[in-house]
Amino acid sequence: MDLKTLFREDILQLVPYSSARDEFSGQARRGAGEAPILLDANENAFDPNGRAGLNRYPDPHQKVLKEEIARWKEISPEQIFLGNGSDEAIDLLIRASCRPFEDEIMIFPPTYGMYAVQARIQGVGIREVLLTPDFQLDPEAALAALTPRTRLLFVCSPNNPTGNLIDREAIATLLRRFSGLVVVDEAYLDFAEAPGWLGELERYPNLVIMQTFSKARGLAGIRLGMAFAHPEIIGVLNKIKFPYNVNVLTQKAALKSLRQPETYRQTVREILRQRRFLEQALPAIPAVQRVYPSRANFLLVQFRQARKVFQYLRHQGIIVRDRSRLPGCQGCLRITVGTPEENQRLIQILQTMELEP
Ligand SMILES: *Cc1c(COP(=O)(O)O)cnc(C)c1O
Question: pTM (2 decimals)?
Answer without folding.
Answer: 0.96
